[in-house]
């Protein structure tokens, strides 16, 4: 499945969001994407007193992964 920028720009009005969720899940399952995310998460340098906001960045999987990965995450809303 290939999505154009216009499709992503209008995602909130799309009657079939399952296609987008499936696409994101497929991308997150790729080893190269997992390695990339692991490296970028490390660059966030999360520690006590820092904040991280993840809004509209996919299915929420990254926020959950970071919560499991970091001892400094105190809440996910």
What does this structure look like?
The protein has 77 residues and is an all-alpha fold. It has one domain. The protein is built from 4 helices and no strands. It has helices at 5-9, 18-28, 31-43, 61-69. The protein is globular. The termini are far apart. The model has no long low-confidence stretch (mean pLDDT 82).
In short:
Helices cover 49% and strands 0% of the residues. The chain has 4 helices and no strands.
CA-atom Rg in angstroms:
14 Å
Roughly what fraction of the amino acids lie in strands? under 5%
Bulk shape? globular
Tally of strands: 0
Give the terminus-to-terminus CA distance. 30 Å
Uncertain runs: none
Helix content: 40-55%
Distinct helical segment count: 4
Give the tags.
about 80 residues, mainly alpha, 4 helices, about 50% helix
